[in-house]
Amino acid sequence: MLQDFDLEKIVEPLLEWFQENARVLPWRESPTPYRVWVSEIMLQQTRVEAVKPYFERFTKELPEVAALATCEEEKLLKLWEGLGYYNRVRNMQVAAKTVMEEYNGILPADYEALLKLKGIGSYTAGAIASIAYQIPVSAVDGNVLRVISRVTGDYSDIMKQSVRAEMERALKNIMPQNRAGAFNQALMELGATVCVPNGAPSCEKCPWQNFCVANLQNCWQEIPVKTKAKARRIEEKTVFIIRDGEKIVLHKRPAKGLLAGLYEFPNTTGHLTEEEALAWVKKHKLSPLRIQKLEPAKHIFSHVEWHMQGYMIRVDELTQDKSGMLFVDVKDSEENYPIPAAFGAYTKYMNIRLGNEKFE
Predict the structure, then answer these.
(1) Is 287 helix (H, G, I), strand (E, B) or coil?
(2) Selected catalytic residue, list 29, 40, 64, 236
(3) Who's near 336: CB < 8 A, 6+ residues apart?
């Protein structure tokens, strides 16, 4: 259990291991508060390798808080395209405006002040404060919850806020002075590369292998304890890839709600037959020439799953704006219209590439 374990003994072996094994990552090369912030928001629920090119592009286009604060929304969403969770980057822009107004464009060197910024929780505030400013505060994410639960043999439910708060306090108490950033990054690194989230840990590579309770008792499969999330809601959709020779049809989603303000292929609820799909297109004052049924696709959000059936529909020349639809050039859509990855299974039929695919 966490309370019965001498946490002090994890510190030096961990720091020595990190010094030898830390990955070379672009945000570690110049860990300014802004760069740490951008990287930590991007890394939430996204793999490091996927984030690298996003981070490089984002910080090249928006190298400082001022640029983020004044960026036009569609450009901002386009830079984020493919990462998902678009409210995160919107919240970043709100926070950036606050930083410009209240802190002269520099993220505050104060944990409590960071917490008050839009979209910054205890983990991100801890990461910025410790990595960029060496303030001795903890930064507890899923990796840290897992490695500390295992090394201490703690069976507490890591989904409980009280468990996270207790771990934050315990780690803060052993935080090495002047090495807070290295300590927090080392914990994250251990969880990302050795004591991994999926599959067996590489205990033979772990600096804690001689005293880790989960290793000594061979109970790593039981720890961490995590309450199962509520089952996601299933939504069936029919997606229409509508084009003439040069243009495709897009639709802008509402300003609020899931994927707010992004561009999508026209779609409707339920799985339509070919006849129903043609009727839907005609209802929207378009003249279909031929239809092709596409493979089904699925996209998973936090609380809902989209189960999609797609149709490629060729229509007469798209010359007018009808039924609120946007008729845009294919190339223009790739460069200027942020389309969420939820529709990624169907963009290939338009020769559109999303997110990182555009730069490969």
Answers:
(1) coil
(2) 40
(3) 74, 78
